[in-house]
Write a structure and sequence with these properties.
About 50% of the residues lie in helices and about 20% in strands. It has helices spanning about 15-30, 35-40, 45-55, 80-95; strands spanning about 30, 60-65, 70-75. Strand 2 and strand 3 (about 70-75) form a beta hairpin.
Length: about 100
């Protein structure tokens, strides 16, 4: 493959936990922090750092509320996040031989 350029891989997504978060939100839609944590299998602190990076990159949005006096954060992919994830997957697929 002569046109291989690893620098085209989105570094913001290309982390095991951030990739798992993006994939989970793609398949499950808007979900709570708790469900993401359960799905991804990360600790609260580790997951919150990765989610914050995705938020700062404009890939995730969050809605915070209280349910029974407990804080609940619901995360979803933004339009930019959906586009970036699709591009990321397409790039990886294009790297595979036909």
């Amino acid at each position: 493959m002569t046109d291989f350029d690893y620098q085209q891989i989105d570094d913001l997504i290309h982390s095991r936990i951030r990739l798992a978060v993006m994939a989970a939100l793609t398949t499950m839609g808007p979900v709570s922090f708790s469900l993401i944590k359960e799905t991804v299998g990360a600790t609260d602190g580790n997951l919150s750092v990765h989610i914050r990076k995705l938020e700062e990159g404009g890939y995730l949005s969050v809605e915070k509320s209280f349910v029974d006096r407990k804080p609940v954060s619901i995360y979803s992919l933004t339009t930019a996040g959906k586009s970036a994830f699709k591009t990321y997957i397409q790039y990886l697929e294009n790297m595979l031989p036909s």
